[in-house]
DNA sequence: ATGACACCTAGAGTAAACTCTAAGTATTAT
DNA sequence: ATAATACTTAGAGTTTACTCTAGGTGTCAT
């Protein structure tokens, strides 16, 4: 099976511009073109697009994805480089999730506080309620830094 | 207490360029300047910088942070807008964490697979091992899309 | 009072990942 | 045959958040 760029747009949600851009950046080195230059994407190309999406979601830049694809095409001699890439990425994702957890707590505190402030119609009153003072102390090292 | 821009650079880790840029963008509307135009940051300004960092970490753009600061300065009439902002942000962070969890599973699978591939010196052999086929099936809806 | 250093402004430059434009060719439907 | 639609290329423009440069002023220790 092969697909026109329009069909791939529908399947992937990427724009035709973006697909051509990816190709120019070396992310799709196997896309075939017919005699008049029209692209015909294979199922293999679609699988690459799925993998590219995953790598992008994990935070890789386009040039890093290109590097990965080059390694893949060089075969088993680059297995350890590819292992390192996934290992590093996993560590970065772990840090990112830890970071988001911290931020989430702060934002949730603000949400609760403002919900109460809206209820009583006054931010200072809500801020000074015992339960919010208590919560803030529990959540933050330097609670005064979080009054804004 | 008040602080020169150099002291704030040391305290926050932000560059002097960035601090002036934030001010230009309306994120620090209260920074005072002496007769010769030199900035003197107050403790209040430092607290704002802490809050700005949190909002940035949560993914807000600079113009959204400026909006929040404007609402804050308008007082209790904007409490509900600020509540909405934190509510939306909390929802976005929840989605982002869910997204990262999915990506993490895929990357972890790749890491395991490549660790085995490096051990045996061949990607195809590792890919075809029963336990990896099994794991892939468990992790992905469309497992073939993940061979790249 | 002289050199080092911190600070100022306005505005230009950068990086990443698109996103769009212009000008043209090819295919398809009626 | 003609119009609409889809496709092609090269290259310019956009957005965000900085980041840096140029050219200058102000402060301070010796």
Low-confidence stretches of chain A: none
Cα distance spanning the termini of chain A: 58 Å
Helical residues, percent of chain A: 55-70%
Average pLDDT confidence of chain A is 92
Largest interface: A-B, 45 and 45 residues
Oligomer status: homodimer
Q: What's the helix count of chain A?
A: 7
Radius of gyration of chain A: 24 Å
Overall geometry of chain A: elongated
Element-by-element helix/strand order of chain A: EHHEEHHHHH
Structural class of chain A: mainly alpha
What is the strand arrangement across the widest sheet of chain A? 1-3-2
Question: DSSP strand (E) fraction of chain A?
Answer: 5-15%
For the biggest sheet of chain A, the summary is: 3 strands, antiparallel
Number of strands of chain A: 3
Give a description of the structure.
2 copies of one chain form a homodimer. The model of chain A has no long low-confidence stretch (mean pLDDT 92). Chain A has helices at 5-12, 16-24, 43-57, 62-74, 79-120, 123-127, 130-139; strands spanning 2-3, 32-33, 39-42. In chain A, helix 5 (79-120) packs antiparallel against helix 7 (130-139). In chain A, a hairpin with a 5-residue loop joins strand 2 and strand 3 (39-42). The first copy, chain A, is elongated and about 75 Å long. Chain A is 69% helix and 5% strand. With 148 residues, chain A is mainly α. In chain A, 24% of the residues are buried. Chain A binds a DNA duplex (30 and 30 nucleotides) through helix 2.
């Amino acid at each position: 099976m092969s697909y026109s760029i329009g069909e791939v747009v529908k399947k992937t949600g990427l724009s035709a511009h973006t697909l051509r851009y990816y190709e120019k950046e070396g992310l799709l080195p196997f896309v075939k073109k017919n005699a008049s230059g029209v692209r015909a994407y294979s199922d293999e190309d679609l699988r690459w697009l799925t993998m590219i999406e995953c790598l992008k979601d994990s935070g890789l830049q386009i040039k890093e994805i290109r590097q990965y694809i080059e390694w893949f095409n060089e075969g088993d001699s680059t297995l350890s480089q590819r292992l390192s890439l996934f290992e590093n990425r996993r560590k970065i994702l772990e840090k990112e999730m830890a970071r988001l957890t911290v931020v989430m707590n702060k934002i949730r505190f603000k949400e609760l506080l403002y919900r109460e402030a809206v209820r009583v119609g006054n931010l200072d009153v809500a801020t000074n309620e015992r339960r919010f003072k208590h919560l803030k102390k529990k959540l933050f090292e330097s609670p005064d830094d979080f009054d804004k």
